[in-house]
Specification:
alpha+beta; Thiol Ester Dehydrase, Chain A; five-stranded antiparallel beta sheet; 3 helices; 23% helix; 36% strand
Amino acid sequence: MKTASKKVSIEIVIMSFETDYVGIVNNTEFIRFIERIRYALSKAYGFSFKQVRDLKLWTVMAHVEINYQSPAHFEDSLIASGWIEKIGKTSITLAYEFRLKKDKTLIADAKQVLVFVNQRLKPTAVPDALKKKFLSN
């Protein structure tokens, strides 16, 4: 089910250890940036992934794709945004974008599919309580 979800944004200032030898953000850092936004997104919806674990469920990253559009450099400030794009039976799809703060240049966009699994690591339904939170915002 598609959802008209709220967009959550955070600022990320690029540090030297996040760049390669020529000062461009290393592509692997975007996975870390996605995790930061996902955390902020969960807080904006009023839940934590610890609450999911308390239900004896976990989320696993089944798919991630990142489309790099333009380089970001050491000391650039990015506005990183995330939102829920789709709620499936056992998964949620999150979408992200990263823009330079100074001129809104698109640096990258991304999608991530998280699958809810039980203790035996078998896909299980997205909990109704979470669906309600996702759909109410």
